[in-house]
Structures are given as structure tokens and as C-alpha cells.
Structure to design on (232 residues):
């Protein structure tokens, strides 16, 4: 249950303002929301099952302490990544299939290498399990994209992205720091190393904020769709 809840919460927070959430919102401007959600579900279920299986496999072939350290460090990286947010680069216009398959294929490709897929791998490593992580991240994606569609399209409002983004950043970084504290050898927790790590983390947060964290990236994406066409 812990793996499931942690996976669900992490993905819901990480997905706010993420490229794949923006993609789902853009598709909801064209197609019925039910079609979009089924496409998101199909793509996420396939993509995250592979990611969770990969994370579990890494546990079997790499010494556990190294895997745990890498997974913990990756959560800090995800937190920094979250600060910048994402933008669509016409991913919603690249594929011309039926509505369901257009959403499914575009979403699967956009999610490949995205931070929520990589977070799924790290969560599977952290909890050494596949099914709870897979179910948690898949449901988390559905929840976050439903929130995006409801607030961004149906209600025509912005999601309070800045607040959610910083909450996600702090949770990811906090989880990563705790993991490193639990797994790193004692000499890496000396005052000098801790001070240097804290300074480096602070500079990284400032740098990522300067790059893309000042302004919310999540706008009403229907404005960028020239001719919304609600097809099944």
C-alpha cells in the first residue's frame, strides 16, 4: 500500500504542468474527453508497466546499495526538473490516426523519457515492486490529466501551477535527501560534505528557477488549437 500511495502522489504532483498533461489538455480541445482519457490510460499503462519492470530488473542485477543511491539522487533531479516546467512543441499535431490511437500513440511517445516515466523506474527501485508502483503511477497520471482537462478546458482557468510545482519540487527533493541519508556511507554525511551538498543544491534550485521557473507555463492550451473539432 505504501508503494501504491507514494507512486500515486508523486506522479500527480510531478505531472502538474508537465508536457504530457499539456498534451492531454490540447487533445481535449479536439476530441471528446472520454476518448482522451482512454488514450491516456492505454498509453500510460503500457509505458509505466515497462518502466516499473525495468526498475525491478535493475534491483536484480545491480548491487542494492548502488541502485538505492542512484534512485535517491534521481528524485532530487526530478525535483529540479519540475521547477522548469514544460511546453508543447506540436506533439499534438504530429499523428493522424483515429482520435483514440492519435492520443495513445502521441502520449506514449511523449511519456517515453519524460520525468514521470523515469520516476516510475525510480519508484520501482525504491520499493522493489512492480504492480503497486505500476497501478499507482497509472492512476496518478489519470488523476492529474483529468484535473488538467477540467480546470484548463472545461472551466477555462489556469491550474495554480506555481504552488503545485513548488510543492512537488520540495517533496521530490526531500524524498531524495532522505534516501541518500539512509543509503550513503557515514563519511559522506560529514559536516563538510553536507554543507557542500546543501550549497550545490541551493545553486541548482536558483539556476533552474532562472531558466524556467519564474513564470507559470500552464496556459489555456485551447488557445493554440486553430479549429477545435470534438470527434469521437
Amino acid at each position: 500500500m505504501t508503494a501504491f500511495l507514494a507512486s500515486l502522489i508523486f506522479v500527480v504532483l510531478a505531472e502538474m504542468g508537465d508536457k504530457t498533461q499539456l498534451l492531454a489538455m490540447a487533445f481535449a480541445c479536439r476530441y471528446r474527453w472520454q476518448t482522451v482519457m482512454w488514450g491516456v490510460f492505454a498509453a500510460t499503462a503500457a509505458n509505466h508497466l515497462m518502466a516499473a519492470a525495468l526498475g525491478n530488473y535493475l534491483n536484480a542485477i545491480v548491487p542494492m546499495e548502488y541502485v538505492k543511491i542512484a534512485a535517491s539522487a534521481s528524485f532530487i533531479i526530478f525535483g529540479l526538473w519540475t521547477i522548469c516546467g514544460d511546453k508543447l512543441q506540436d506533439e499534438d499535431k504530429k499523428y493522424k490516426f483515429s482520435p483514440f490511437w492519435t492520443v495513445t500513440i502521441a502520449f506514449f511517445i511523449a511519456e517515453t523519457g519524460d520525468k514521470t516515466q523515469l520516476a516510475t523506474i525510480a519508484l520501482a527501485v525504491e520499493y522493489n515492486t512492480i504492480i503497486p508502483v505500476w497501478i499507482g503511477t497509472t492512476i496518478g497520471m489519470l488523476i492529474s490529466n483529468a484535473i488538467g482537462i477540467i480546470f484548463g478546458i472545461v472551466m477555462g482557468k489556469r491550474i495554480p501551477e506555481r504552488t503545485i510545482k513548488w510543492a512537488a519540487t520540495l517533496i521530490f527533493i526531500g524524498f531524495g535527501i532522505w534516501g541518500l541519508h539512509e543509503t550513503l556511507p557515514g563519511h559522506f554525511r560529514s559536516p563538510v560534505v553536507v554543507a557542500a551538498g546543501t550549497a550545490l543544491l541551493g545553486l541548482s534550485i536558483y539556476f533552474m528557477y532562472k531558466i524556467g521557473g519564474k513564470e507559470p507555463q500552464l496556459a489555456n492550451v485551447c488557445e493554440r488549437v486553430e479549429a477545435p473539432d470534438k470527434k469521437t
About this structure: The chain has a mean pLDDT of 79. Residues 2-224 form one domain. The chain is about 75% helix and 0% strand. The CA atoms of residues 35 and 74 lie 33 Å apart.
